[in-house]
Amino acid sequence: MTFEDNEENISGIYNYCDRWCERCAFTARCMTYQMEQEYAIDEDSDDPMRDALNVVGAAFADAKRMLIEKAEEMGIDLDEAMNDPEIDEDIARADNWVESKPAVELGKRYALGVTKFLDRVDEWLPQSDDPMAVEMFRVVQWFHFMVAVQIHSSYRALLDWDGYEDPEALADTQSHANGTAKNTLISIDRSINAWKYLSEVGDAAQIQPWLSLLEEIKPLMEEKFPNAYEFVRPGFDEIETVM
Ligand code: SF4
């Protein structure tokens, strides 16, 4: 039986989660988690490098198999596609469109700035035994890069294969774009709440710029993706039906 055949798994749950598997209630029903466990390197290995290479090789082989199967299913000739200059143009058009969005730019600024800010935590957060401060710091740490990636992915998901905006992706509440945008907004909210708590116990003036940045990004996302909150995330938003 392959991972895809496990009937207990919730299809696509890993597409709209926060990837915080150690805190996730759905590990037993998630294909991605199961694959990661399968590929995990034995901590007691006598040759971790060899094991790591084997794991990477197996992961690539699986990814290649799935890609070929998907391409066949969609009637795509991969050899032809790889040498098609039109596809390069489509990719460039899509990249330019996504990169031109203010929310994408602000997301990048947030991720890079917060990375440096977290490195000098001693300057803005006093050492304490407050478990909530530790938890909120972890939340900020966990989501700061993810927010930027999710914003980028949300906009990217609005484009069709030719790199043009697809109005259906916005209108359909269950589109991948709306699901990714909802996930992004959840990450932003969790980060905002964490920063607010850290502001109370740390140096609020130093923290404020990151809070402001998120508070600037959030309405941009809500305006662009007005249907995002309607998206029903597999598993997470339908707990009663899947538990
Ligand atoms: S759904 Fe849960 S277990 Fe699966 S990848 Fe996401 S966080 Fe990890």
Compact description:
By secondary structure, this protein is mainly alpha-helical. The chain has helices spanning 31-39, 48-73, 78-82, 85-99, 102-119, 131-156, 167-171, 176-201, 204-224, 239-242. The two termini are 23 Å apart.
Overall description:
- The structure is a single chain.
- With 243 residues, the protein is mostly helical.
- It folds into two domains: 3-81, no CATH class; 85-239, no CATH class.
- Helices cover 64% and strands 0% of the residues.
- It is built from ten helices and no strands.
- It has helices at 31-39, 48-73, 78-82, 85-99, 102-119, 131-156, 167-171, 176-201, 204-224, 239-242.
- The longest helix has 26 residues, at 48-73.
- The two termini are 23 Å apart.
- 23% of the residues are buried.
- The mean pLDDT is 90.
- It binds iron/sulfur cluster.
Ligands, ions, cofactors: iron/sulfur cluster
The number of distinct β-strands equals 0
Q: Oligomerization state of this entry?
A: single chain
Number of domains: 2
Poorly predicted runs of 5 or more residues: none
Please report the number of helical segments: 10
Report the sheet-strand fraction: under 5%
What is the rounded distance between the termini?
Answer: 23 Å
Radius of gyration: 21 Å
Largest sheet at a glance? Answer: none
Q: What is the helix/strand order?
A: HHHHHHHHHH
The overall average pLDDT, rounded, is 90
Helix coverage percent: 55-70%
Helix-strand category: mainly alpha
- Apparent shape: globular
